[in-house]
């Protein structure tokens, strides 16, 4: 049982969910503190995606507690409400608007909460522009601001989408396999970028790339068969015989 602290940003305890009798999550407990960057590793089918689905309200747990910012019960909220509460999710595949410029993608993301009609007549304030400039710098796309998103590399599209999520000012950002398909240079830059982002919010990143996880240099949680197998520094986790047997040694 995990001790619940009112300052804890995300708190999962004893979370289980089954699909057709198969336990995808099995009494999972997981805690993220404000401003924390956490890496999640684990074999295929370990429950990493299902855990993200539970946090974002896509899947309901059969059992267990899921709280955000101390006392907000996420199991009672739907996906839209959870996004509104400040939980952003980056899926594996980038879904940027290819035929719009980098700047316009960020402007659209900034306007997302305003509704279609309001957006049509909305003019960016100086503050909005300053915010977009800041996001461009964070996601390393200042020099590409006027280029169509279609012309970006795969890695840059991933960064743009992270920028679009930042426009929503999430307190918790969930990022699923961001470096899959990236070049080595982009992968190294993504580790720096996520560390920058985690200076102002919490980030949970799922990845299989162990070099990238090592670059992050943060606490790692290894999931297997729907629960936590090991948790701690990368050296601690990667030397755990259970982790070697279930994941690294495969
Ligand atoms: N909606 C669903 N219906 C049936 N089974 C599901 C569903 N979602 C997940 N599962 C099963 O639950 C298990 C956990 O899957 P999950 O996608 O969470 O693992 P994962 O750790 O994200 O794996 P990967 O690294 O391959 O993405 C898998 O065996 C999967 O087939």
TrEMBL record:
<dbReference type="InterPro" id="IPR051120">
    <property type="entry name" value="ABC_AA/LPS_Transport"/>
</dbReference>
<dbReference type="InterPro" id="IPR003593">
    <property type="entry name" value="AAA+_ATPase"/>
</dbReference>
<keyword id="KW-0547">Nucleotide-binding</keyword>
<keyword id="KW-0813">Transport</keyword>
<dbReference type="Pfam" id="PF12399">
    <property type="entry name" value="BCA_ABC_TP_C"/>
</dbReference>
<dbReference type="GO" id="GO:0005886">
    <property type="term" value="C:plasma membrane"/>
</dbReference>
<dbReference type="GO" id="GO:0016887">
    <property type="term" value="F:ATP hydrolysis activity"/>
</dbReference>
<feature type="domain" description="ABC transporter">
    <location>
        <begin position="10"/>
        <end position="250"/>
    </location>
</feature>
<protein>
    <submittedName>
        <fullName>ABC transporter ATP-binding protein</fullName>
    </submittedName>
</protein>
<dbReference type="InterPro" id="IPR027417">
    <property type="entry name" value="P-loop_NTPase"/>
</dbReference>
<dbReference type="Pfam" id="PF00005">
    <property type="entry name" value="ABC_tran"/>
</dbReference>
<dbReference type="InterPro" id="IPR017781">
    <property type="entry name" value="ABC_transptr_urea_ATP-bd_UrtD"/>
</dbReference>
<dbReference type="InterPro" id="IPR032823">
    <property type="entry name" value="BCA_ABC_TP_C"/>
</dbReference>
<dbReference type="GO" id="GO:0005524">
    <property type="term" value="F:ATP binding"/>
</dbReference>
<keyword id="KW-0067">ATP-binding</keyword>
<dbReference type="InterPro" id="IPR003439">
    <property type="entry name" value="ABC_transporter-like_ATP-bd"/>
</dbReference>
């Amino acid at each position: 049982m995990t001790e619940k602290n009112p300052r804890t940003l995300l708190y999962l305890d004893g979370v289980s969910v089954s699909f057709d009798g198969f336990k995808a999550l099995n009494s999972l407990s997981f805690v993220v503190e404000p401003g924390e960057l956490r890496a999640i590793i684990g074999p295929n089918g370990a429950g990493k995606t299902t855990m993200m689905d539970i946090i974002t309200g896509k899947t309901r747990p059969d059992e267990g507690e899921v709280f955000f910012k101390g006392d907000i019960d996420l199991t009672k909220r739907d996906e839209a409400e959870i996004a509104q509460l400040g939980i952003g999710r980056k899926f594996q595949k980038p879904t940027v608007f290819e035929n719009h410029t980098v700047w316009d993608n960020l402007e659209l993301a900034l306007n997302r909460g305003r509704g279609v009609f309001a957006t049509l007549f909305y003019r960016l304030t100086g503050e909005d522009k300053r915010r977009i400039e800041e996001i461009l710098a964070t996601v390393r796309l200042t020099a590409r601001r006027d280029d169509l998103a279609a012309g970006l590399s795969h890695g840059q599209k991933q960064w743009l989408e992270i920028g679009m999520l930042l426009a929503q000012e999430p307190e918790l950002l969930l990022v699923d396999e961001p470096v899959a398909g990236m070049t080595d240079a982009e992968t190294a830059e993504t580790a720096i970028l996520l560390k920058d982002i985690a200076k102002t919010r919490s980030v949970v990143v799922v990845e299989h790339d162990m070099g990238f996880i090592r670059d992050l240099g943060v606490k790692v949680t290894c999931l297997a068969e729907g629960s936590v197998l090991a948790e701690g520094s990368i050296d601690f986790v990667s030397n755990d015989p259970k982790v070697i047997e279930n994941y690294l040694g495969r």
